[in-house]
Design goal:
Shape: extended
Structural class: alpha+beta
Helix content: 40-55%
Largest sheet: 2 strands, antiparallel
Distance between the termini: 62 Å
Number of helices: 3
Number of strands: 4
Strand order of the largest sheet: 1-2
Length: about 100
């Protein structure tokens, strides 16, 4: 799927790719939390049957539920961020170049 158009520099071609099913589901997840509505949105974007998309949305929902980010709120409802930094310690054996 490409389209040609003319510019002062010559003919240019623009490639237009339809979204993948995963991209359509990702977009629908960003719009609503309801899985049925997500399936309707993704099916409309892709032009696929609702039942087929609903099965994929449910699979994606299960995977997202396992890796969901948790937000801790304080007494007044203010969100707090917790940053965990891990320092990587690299230990090397005897270095052949220095002889140590």
């Amino acid at each position: 799927m490409s389209e040609d158009w003319n510019t002062k520099y010559g003919t240019r071609r623009v490639r237009r790719d339809p979204p993948t099913l995963e991209e359509a589901i990702f977009a629908a997840v960003g719009i609503t939390d309801d899985q049925q509505q997500q399936a309707e949105i993704a099916a409309a974007l892709m032009g696929l049957p609702y039942e087929e998309v609903l099965a994929e949305v449910k699979k994606t929902g299960r995977a997202l539920a396992r890796s969901a980010t948790r937000v801790i709120t304080g007494e007044q409802g203010a969100q707090r961020s917790v940053v965990v930094e891990r320092r990587v310690v690299r230990r090397f054996g005897n270095d052949k170049r220095t002889g140590t």
